[in-house]
Specification:
The longest helix has 27 residues, at about 370-395. The protein has a seven-stranded mixed beta sheet with strand order 17-18-16-15-21-22-23. The chain starts with a strand and ends with a helix. It has 16 helices and 23 strands. By secondary structure, the chain is of the alpha+beta class. Helix 9 (about 240-245) crosses helix 14.
Length: about 500
């Protein structure tokens, strides 16, 4: 009887369940979107109960599609939108408030009040003080939801990112998280892999409400939900770390980039914590049980695929997102046009919240194809900015970049990415690397796969783009990009 590993992929807009076989092939999957709640400008929420209902539905639907027995599922892993914060009652399982999503900026005032502790937070957690992370969101909930602080101090109210929420429900009350999710809270000591008492005191968060921190690959508990037999839950990874693991970035210096709404670039720095001097985040890449953690440098680009949607919806330059490629391919270069999509500031490595979007270099010669090309090139240039910072921080020369995500369908973008980086860009056979990564972590814990060497053998290359640009042209293009970025900074 064939055996399979299940992966719950709980993202910002939807929840999926995917079944993988031993050769990493997708056997079946199902996906359901959930509601995006916007109570005020800058506020973004999800209903945790809706997410849990959808999780149950996608598991049931996938099993129905696959036409397999539940006895054939050896384990389940969970990957999740990181930083999204839920607080619920330990006894009733009822959330005290909606989940506050990673994009939410309501904690801006809290973060400004913490700026005097910025160096301490960076030293201990590898993160800057920012609205992005869970810690300030927990503080906001404790300060603003009636009687919540009292419930937290009594041990009734408990916190988790979405991984903890789903695990708690699946396992009938196991309150845990893994090191990758814990490393995104602004509360975990990177060296000790434990909650930091000094930071908890600064944020006034009771320690007893926090989950136990575990590795990314071990048996956390078993579920009977919807199954006659107990199935182990044995892998948890935040979504970007899951893609990193699915891309088998197991060697020091390995780098992956996920091209989605934004871009998330992670570099393996081995067992060494590298504190960035060039605007990157330091995070836990993954940890296999009884092994030392693998750390990573991370750089995030806020606007990538969403720029194409913006051009489609706000300018009607195209009617379907994929048309951007056909339009851009009508010209051989950008015609001197550079598009800096700093719609809400710039992320890594600039971290300039006052930057604003800029289209620069316009002449009579420029047409809509040049604009389309500059839109695609913006993602490649922003990736190069992060790439340069990673090389400086790590002291390593990066020769190849593993890629995944929707924008990898653009041959023009991927070739330009290879050209502007002067590095090979490699797309794997299986592009669902986030779900695959947590399936790998879960499967390792129960012996479905023996070790990371076996996983690396499973990883197959689908396509490689090699650099094909002169050094002079590369320098001219990148110099112009940097000039364009400088024009966009500190506009507000």
């Amino acid at each position: 009887m064939k055996k399979y590993v299940g992966a719950i992929d709980q993202g910002t807009t939807s929840t999926r369940f995917i079944l993988f076989d031993h050769d990493s092939n997708i056997v079946a999957s199902h996906q359901i979107e959930h509601k995006q709640i916007f109570p005020k400008a800058g506020w973004v929420e999800h209903d945790p109960l809706e997410i849990w209902r959808n999780t149950k539905k996608v598991i049931a639907a996938t099993l129905q599609k696959a036409k397999i027995s539940e006895n054939q599922i050896v384990t389940i892993g969970i990957t999740n939108q990181r930083e999204t914060t839920v607080i619920w009652n330990r006894k009733t399982g009822k959330p005290y408030y909606n989940a506050i999503v990673w994009q939410d900026t309501r904690t801006d005032k809290i973060c400004r009040s913490l700026k005097k502790y910025e160096k301490l937070f960076q030293q201990k957690t590898g993160l800057p003080v920012a609205t992005y992370f869970s810690g300030p969101k927990i503080k906001w909930l404790l300060d603003n939801v009636k009687d919540l602080r009292k419930a937290a101090e009594n041990g009734e109210a408990i916190f988790g990112n979405i991984d903890s929420w789903i695990t708690w429900n699946l396992t009938d009350g196991k309150h845990i998280t893994d090191v990758t999710n814990a490393s995104r809270t602004m509360l975990m000591d990177l060296e000790l892999l434990d909650w930091n008492d000094e930071l908890l005191e600064i944020l006034d968060i009771p320690k007893k409400m926090l989950p136990k921190i575990c590795s990314s690959s071990e048996i956390y508990g078993k579920t009977k939900f919807g199954f006659e037999n107990e199935i182990p839950i044995s892998g948890i990874l935040g979504d970007q770390q899951a893609a990193f693991f699915g891309q088998t970035c197991f060697q020091k210096g390995d780098v992956k980039n996920t091209y989605g709404t934004g871009c998330f670039i992670l570099m393996n720095t081995g067992n060494e914590i590298v504190h960035s001097k060039n605007g990157l985040l330091t995070t836990v890449g993954y940890q296999i049980k009884d092994q030392k953690p693998i750390y990573a440098l991370e750089g995030s680009v806020a606007i990538a695929g969403s720029l194409i949607q913006w051009i489609r919806d706000n300018f009607s330059l195209i009617t379907e997102s994929h048309e951007i490629n056909n339009l851009a391919e009508k010209v051989t270069d950008n015609g001197g046009v550079y598009f800096v999509p700093a719609f809400s500031g710039l992320f890594a490595p600039h971290w300039n919240s006052a930057a604003r979007g800029t289209i620069i270099g316009l002449t009579h010669f420029v047409n809509k194809s040049h604009i389309a090309r500059s839109v695609l090139e913006a993602t490649a240039f922003q990736t190069r900015d992060v790439f340069e910072a990673m090389q400086k921080d790590s002291g390593l020369k990066i020769k190849e970049l593993k890629v995944d995500g929707g924008m990898t369908a653009s041959n023009l973008l991927m070739q330009f990415q290879a050209d502007i980086l002067n590095a090979s860009v490699i797309l794997p056979n299986i592009t669902e690397t986030t779900a695959l990564g947590v399936a790998y972590a879960a499967g390792l814990a129960v012996g479905f796969w023996k070790n990371t060497n076996e996983l690396q053998k499973n990883w197959k290359e689908k396509k490689t783009w090699k650099p094909n640009m002169t050094e002079i042209k590369r320098k001219i293009l990148y110099d112009h990009w940097q000039k364009a970025v400088k024009r966009s900074l500190d506009w507000e």
